[in-house]
């Protein structure tokens, strides 16, 4: 073998430093590519299934999924709130898992670090769903029940039983057959699948929280029970359109109670008739009901709706005014008067401004 051949590599071909370096570079490139692929796979796995045993800690986010919404819309809502990064990729994954055809509607409380599998599990089972329900001031049990049926998927019979719960009635010490007036008007966040009994109980507890302990000492001074105050407050709530008039309207009724004059409150006629039109006709005043304050002296048997805190306070602390009459003006404010003659003049003034139907009862009276 010659020296020249001895220098050759396998097959007698020379091996250069450049070719050996190229092999090392090739192996390094492939290693980096494999490392990147593994990293992407790990990232995707974490994105999809999370890290086992590690609790999710992230920003709490509320996402509303409307009833009957397609999965695409739900995915877009999740992306818009930052819970997922890609609505399209999430939708494809859900489709592969056959999880895009079953989701519960409602407002979900989720965390923005949740894995896709956790989100899908929550949406299939309804975990984390809450229902926000707003009960306006003055609403009756009938109105509240209709809202709970719609918002919480409860049955009318279950709510009817809940508002007649004898334990609650005893706890509130009320003589009426239902907790009318004690389902406090507020915005509630109810968990999914809450029972009617628990929903009603939470609303009664909100009333008990709103009733200030210091008010109890006022009751004996006013010679009223709490039930009396809630009943008067419910009438005030239904009468006023301008909040600042609450103490004055309460004073009119308080003055009438003091001299044993009929309250003649139109909202009690609406309640007796089972409607909420706000327009009382003379023929309506003949309704035979203990809630007809045109025919029955004193307060009605119980509240005619759910008063808010401002009306409760107005019933406890009415304005110090001598008025016995008021009439509503077209813009919603009331004209208050001391005597019936002054009241008739106020009615003529209001009618001249509004030209209402002459069959409308004068309010109040």
- Computed over alpha carbons, the radius of gyration is 35 Å
- How many helices in DSSP terms? 15
Helix content: 40-55%
How does the helix and strand content classify structurally?
alpha+beta
Give the low-confidence spans. Answer: 1-13, 35-57, 358-364
What is the number of E strands?
6
* CA(first)-CA(last) distance: 132 Å
Arithmetic mean pLDDT = 84
Please give the order of strands in the largest beta sheet. 1-2-3-4
Query: Strand percentage, roughly?
Result: 5-15%
Major β-sheet annotation = 4 strands, antiparallel
Could you spell the SSE succession in H and E letters? HHEHHEHEHHHEHHHHHHEEH
Q: How many structural units, i.e. domains?
A: 3
Shape: elongated
What do you see in this structure?
The protein is of the alpha+beta class. The protein folds into 3 domains: 60-127, Dna Ligase, domain 1 (2-Layer Sandwich); 130-210, Dna Ligase, domain 1 (2-Layer Sandwich); 213-354, no CATH class. The chain has 15 helices and 6 strands. A 4-stranded antiparallel beta sheet has the order 1-2-3-4, with helices on one face. A hairpin with a 5-residue loop joins strand 5 (325-328) and strand 6. Helix 3 crosses helix 4 (87-96).
Write the layout of secondary structure elements.
Blueprint: H1 3-6, H2 17-49, E1 60-65, H3 71-80, H4 87-96, E2 106-111, H5 116-125, E3 129-134, H6 141-152, H7 156-162, H8 166-172, E4 187-191, H9 196-210, H10 216-222, H11 226-239, H12 246-258, H13 266-273, H14 309-316, E5 325-328, E6 334-337, H15 340-354
Antiparallel strand pairs: 1-2, 2-3, 3-4, 5-6
